[in-house]
Design goal:
single chain; mainly beta; eight-stranded antiparallel β-barrel; 2 helices; 10 strands; elongated
Amino acid sequence: DDDTAPDDDTTPDDDTAPDDDTADDDTVADDDTADDDTAPTPPTWLALDLSAATVTEPPGIASIIAPYLADARLFLGPSNYTPTTVDIRLAEDWPPSLLWAWMAASWSAPHFETPATGSVSLDLGGGMVFDVEGAAMSGDIVAAGTRLADGVLEGSVDTRSIDPLLGGGEGATCDLLAAFGVSCDPCADGGPFCIPILVEDIPGEAFP
């Protein structure tokens, strides 16, 4: 059991074998170069505070929409980080009810960006429902995955869900926007009732 015997310097289970200095160390997962500096370990969900966000679009009626968004209970669920991708889920209420999932969204720590492929129906209460087509999200996941900073939600909203709140029939929202020089675009079904929505500066905190 000295220099030439098993369990010593020249045999397995020593300096040249696995489970020693060259294995399960800096080159593998859960150590210094993997699942560490390149990606935080997130909580299950981040609660989004839309009351602190800025509704930039649609022009002209952003101030009407903002109070409804402020009361929305939305949650962001990042998971399955790789050095270049992350899965992003958007849910509402608690326990979370999944609205959409962007799998393998772009990730360059701490920033993520999803493709504009989401189809999200946001029930904001008070009769306000946002059907968002081509929905996308982006932002920075910081503080070891416990906070969202500079979050952005964007897409195209079907204004037919907003028309009743303006006391008009189909097209009432588009008629109002016309006064601001804004025209509605075709929706997925071809109806000329869609407008862009852009919500910026969305913060989020780990929940629960």
